[in-house]
Amino acid sequence: MSATHAPESSGQPALVLTVDEATAVLRVGRDKIYDLIRSGALPSYTEGRARRIPVESARAYVQNKLKESA
Prior knowledge:
Elements: E1 16-17, H1 19-26, H2 30-39, E2 45-47, E3 50-54, H3 55-69
Antiparallel strand pairs: 1-3, 2-3
Helix pairs in contact: 1-2
């Protein structure tokens, strides 16, 4: 998974995603993202009032889903 949907103002890949970016990357709705955050399945943090999701958290979520379905 890449963070190509995330803005890259410095030319470097994004390290974190906004909730909207995470919905695009993971192909789920905002409510599902917040459910995953609340359950601890998608670790995140707040920066001021904004929620940020590390790209590695999104990758780990996908890997866990793949293991569950195997």
